[in-house]
Amino acid sequence: MSRQLSDQTISLVKATVPALQAHGLDITRRMYERMFRNAAIRDLFNQSHHGETGSQPKALAMAVLAYAQNIDNLGVLAGAVERIAQKHVGLNILPEHYPHVAEALLGAIQDVLGEAATPEILAAWGEAYWFLADLLIGREVQIYGEQAAAPGGWNGWRDFTVLEKRQESEIITSFILAPVDGGQVMRHQPGQYLTFWLEIPGHTPLKRNYSISSAPGDARYRITVKREPQGVASNWLHDAVQPGARLKVGAPAGEFVLPETESPVVLLSGGVGQTPLVSMLAAMAERRSLVPVQFVHGTQSGATHALGGEVRALVAASGGRITAATFYECPRAQDRPGQDYDVEGRITLDWLRAHTPTAGADYYLCGPRPFLRTFTDGLVRLGVPPARIHYEFFGPADELLAA
User: Fold this and answer.
1) What sections of 91-118 are H helices per DSSP?
2) Which CATH number is correct for 7-149, 3.10.310.40, 1.20.950.20, 1.10.490.10, 2.30.30.110?
3) How far apart are CA 272 and CA 325, in angstroms?
4) Distance (Å, whole) CA 345 – CA 347
5) Radius of gyration of the chain, Cα coordinates, nearest whole angstrom
6) What's the pTM value of the predicted model, to 2 decimals?
7) Strand-pair category, 265-270 with 293-299
8) What residues are annotated to the active site?
9) 269 φ/ψ angles, rounded to the nearest 5 degrees
10) pLDDT at 47
């Protein structure tokens, strides 16, 4: 594969942008139909993004369109490439899997576009696909090597035991995990997730990502999982998995991480989106630096509020360097202002303007899509440089070869 795309390929791929705008979702749906005929390939993917929510074909259609639109300026997609590579490593996707995706994608383009998918167009998209695939494969090989070389690191799936199961709220439960082999674990970067291979009776194997909610360590991990009403995996974890159960786990992955920093940090979360941010908060507390940290969290009420006691303990032990503000949208009668929560209502941009450093801080956001849409755009309007806004959300991202 050449290191540069040919001018002809760039021109032909860009010429398909109108067709992708009109038929991109049909193409991606057809692509997954073709690819999932192979059970071994189907089982590599997170089926909740296909069957339970149906969101992944839409995300993929947007990603393919973005790739075509920016194929002559791929630097703007660097962040997306890193995110995809991290996801693929979590799912244990290997170089030998890429030809299956290429065949399905090109076949879907031909199926949907018919005669408009000329041999020249298909050849251009084949070259474009493998150009990106080679970039991803190279980065993934590097990540796999880093995982294998790290103390306690591993590749593929490793058996873990559930040491403890702890109910954090009416809808959120934590699971403490340690390796069955008794060895140490790879210290995760605050904000990363674990990928699970779940064998649930009556279902094909399921893959799920759950953020690590504990501080980095070398003995165990903690995940903190919300029960989703229609979530096969989350309901099984809540109802069936007990201490002593074994789970297959991939090594920590993800690019939404908290680096060493000298700038103030604001950790802003909605609902169970706090889980990677609690890991970040605990890591900042352990560093004992002078960097001020604010933890701002919104949830419905005490019935849905998880890990509140842990956050308050970190604040109390910080000597004032760490502060926290908890918002309850609909407090119950037994929820105590000033103890269980600080502000009634939702987090607002006006509150953030008045109580956080805005332009001088790094903001880390995690929550549902509406939450992120409000605050990623809103913080820019408040004067926060876009480079200082870092975010993670649950569900499929704008990926080209996606789980």
Assistant:
1) 98-113
2) 1.10.490.10
3) 16
4) 7
5) 22
6) 0.91
7) parallel
8) 98, 140
9) -140, 155
10) 61
